[in-house]
Design goal:
This protein is 31% helix and 22% strand. By secondary structure, the chain is of the alpha/beta class. It has a single domain, classed as Rossmann fold (3-Layer(aba) Sandwich). Helix 4 links the parallel strand 4 and strand 5 (98-101). The longest helix is centred in the middle third of the chain and has 10 residues, at 44-53. Bound molecules: magnesium ion. The site of magnesium ion has 7 residues, from loops. Magnesium ion binds next to loops.
């Protein structure tokens, strides 16, 4: 089991600014058995609303600096955070998550990068 946390702004297509990750990719990751959700500077309520609006049933929403709590809550073999900024990298590393730059991921919708 792997847990994948997505930043929103600059990472998700519905972020401001929009990033390259589509709701469909997140849905597909979930179907493949990944634990998926977001960790953003946006409020929890707003993140919940965005996922609902884009019809993705996420396993968690988190504040970016609270990634460590996901490790306590979910047992997983790997923990990843995907984002577009140094802040993402900083909090991911602080929490012991692997960090992936969103713009270094393939754009073809495949998720073999996980
Ligand atoms: Mg961002």
């Amino acid at each position: 089991m792997k847990l994948v946390s997505f930043d929103i702004d600059g990472t998700m297509i519905f972020g401001v600014p929009p990033g390259p990750i589509t709701p469909n990719l997140v849905r597909k990751a979930k179907e493949m058995g990944y634990l998926v959700g977001s960790a953003s500077d946006r409020t929890i309520a707003n993140q919940v609303e965005l996922w609902k609006e884009h019809e993705v049933e996420v396993d968690f929403v988190s504040l970016k600096h609270r990634l460590p709590e996901l490790k306590e809550k979910f047992e997983a073999a790997r923990y990843l955070h995907i984002g577009d900024s140094d802040t993402d990298r900083y909090f991911a590393e602080q929490a012991g998550f692997e960090f992936l730059w969103v713009h270094q991921l393939p754009r073809n919708g495949e998720i073999h990068w996980l």
